[in-house]
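Q: what sequence does this backbone want?
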């Protein structure tokens, strides 16, 4: 993973998981942050940009449209908008990779976030 991030010019990983824990070795926030740091890549966690529990439950059941609707409603909240503003600022100063649980971007809220960031910055979206 570090090789792909480095080769892609990623300077910072923005973890957008509401629950930054994982059973996959190396993907829990502290271990991940340490590994990225050792590879010269920054790590930022912003739980405000994570999918609410109802959205995560919908995603687990394969109800992507429900997850997207729940996440869109979540993004109207003041704290989520503040998180988005912070993400836009971060993306304006760094090459950022959004990290979440889902493997496929079209099944994940990070595609929605990437689109929202692109709308404000004009930056291209590249799925790694």
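A:
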């Amino acid at each position: 993973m570090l090789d792909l991030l480095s080769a892609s010019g990623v300077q910072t990983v923005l973890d957008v998981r509401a629950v930054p824990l994982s059973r996959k070795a190396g993907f829990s926030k502290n271990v991940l942050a340490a590994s990225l740091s050792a590879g010269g890549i920054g790590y930022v966690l912003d739980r405000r940009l994570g999918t609410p529990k109802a959205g995560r439950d919908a995603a687990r059941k394969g109800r992507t449209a429900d997850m997207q609707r729940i996440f869109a409603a979540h993004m109207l909240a003041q704290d989520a908008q503040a998180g988005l503003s912070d993400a836009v600022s971060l993306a304006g100063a760094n090459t950022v990779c959004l990290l979440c649980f889902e493997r496929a971007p079209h099944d994940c809220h990070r595609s929605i976030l990437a689109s929202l960031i692109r709308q404000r910055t004009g930056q291209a979206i590249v799925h790694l």
